Amino acid sequence: MKKKTKNMTKKMAAANLEKIAALFPHVITETTGSGGNDHKVVDLEQLRQELLAVIFGDGERCRFTWPGQKEAILLANTPAAKTLRPAREESLHWETTENLYLEGDNLEALKILQETYLNSIKCIYIDPPYNTGKDLIYKDDFRQDKKGCLSVPGQAGAIGNRLFKNVETTDRFHSAWLNMIYPRLILARKLLRPDGIIFISIDDGEVHNLRKVCDEVFGERNFVACITWANKEGGGRSDCRLFRIKHEYIICYAQDIEKIKIIGVPVSNAGRYRLADKYVKTRGKYYLQKLGMGSIRYSPTLDYPIVTPAGTTVMPADNNKGRKACWRWSRRKFAWGQKNGFITIKKDKKGIWTVYTKQYLNCDHEGNLITRTQRPLGVIDNFSNTQAAKLLNALRLGNCFSYPKPVELIAYLINRVIAKEGIILDFFAGSATTAHAVMQLNAEDGGNRRYIMVQLPEPCPQKSEAYRAGFKNIAEIGKERIRRAAQKIRTETGADIDYGFRVFKVD
Ligand SMILES: C[S@@+](CC[C@H](N)C(=O)[O-])C[C@H]1O[C@@H](n2cnc3c(N)ncnc32)[C@H](O)[C@@H]1O
User: Fold this and answer.
1) Based on the domain organization, do 382 and 367 belong to the same domain?
2) What's the gap in Å between 480 CA and the centre of ligand 1?
3) Which of 3-17, 27-41, 192-206, 436-450 has the lowest mean pLDDT?
4) Is there an atom of ligand 1 within 6 Å of 106 CB?
């Protein structure tokens, strides 16, 4: 495996060299390696000369840094020290499934995933610890790894010893969190497809730092949105001193903003479509829009008489308070529209014969049946934490996991990015809500979305409800949740989809 990861690092370096070569061919030169073979290298001095005009000098600069940042970069670039061990007995439909459940530290898992999933993931959703001072942060210490001083990873004890409560009174409170998230985001970005998108849940505590760190990793220009999610049904958190907060955020970045597409949501102003005719079953309801309105540039070919039901004629100017005007449709299109029920001619309130087109909810003006969509709002005010807790209750896992996200929220986000196929990665999987959402969506529309979950076997405290229910760690809860969700979805929908998952342990 070590050889494999060394190869992977080499592969990644070679890919970067190709990118530099494409931009600056003459900075690439050849040298003879220790084995006597010639290979391509970058002449850094030459590259410096190329970039002289844009190289940072001695002046002041605007940059986001924190103690430990350099080590964190190093950590991201260190090859994986671990490997994946299959756990068939914990898996479901091992032979046929394409879903993965990786159990272990996500930093190592993300490194291992680079080998097979580089530029392959369409959507990443993560819900990392928010750094509330109460949640546990996993401590990476690669120097320890190198010396081999760690106890066997994957064992609850070893994991437990590396989780620490990052209390607000420590002077490196924010840096500790940044050092945890930064190398993971660097690795995650490399897994995204060119048209890939990442969603990250966060609250007021670290949202500002997360934005900055994402600007650094993904590039400021690839910022898509900072979505606000109103997460509570009632009146907001009771522990807030000044404003009662009932929202958090979902930060969204693209791998390349030019290549992404956000899938629209069904129109919210459907109430506007109030009228019905004999086509209502297929085209839906409609509203009327004047054929003589709009900002169309005047053209004599669009300025023609239309015969009213009374046998008189009406001109565009008659429908435009006498101003020089034209219709929106050509004669030919008008004739087609009139024949196919898209035109109404009737008197307006002032008794003037007026020509209207019908705007149907489910049909465009070419006669195609459509679902009208609009760009999604940056505020999500449905789907609550309570809803999520209720669903876990229904799976008899109610008190085993605190603050799961609602399946509907994750499904909503996935639906903004993936039509029916693609891989979704969640490397802070918790109770595996994301896996549940993927199965739910596939069952609803026969899609073939796949998931990769990564979860630390974080020990459940002995006094916890989860421990009493037989779960020693959170990974066990996650796997069991997927099994139970699969059962529920199968019973409810009868859908023939991939309910399985292969378990691998990072060790
Ligand atoms: C806020 S929870 C995610 C909840 C999840 N969205 C849900 O709906 O259930 C964060 C999870 O990340 C896990 N975690 C923290 N550090 C990790 C690491 N280094 N590797 C893998 N998982 C980690 C924690 O054990 C916790 O279960």
Assistant:
1) no
2) 15
3) 3-17
4) yes
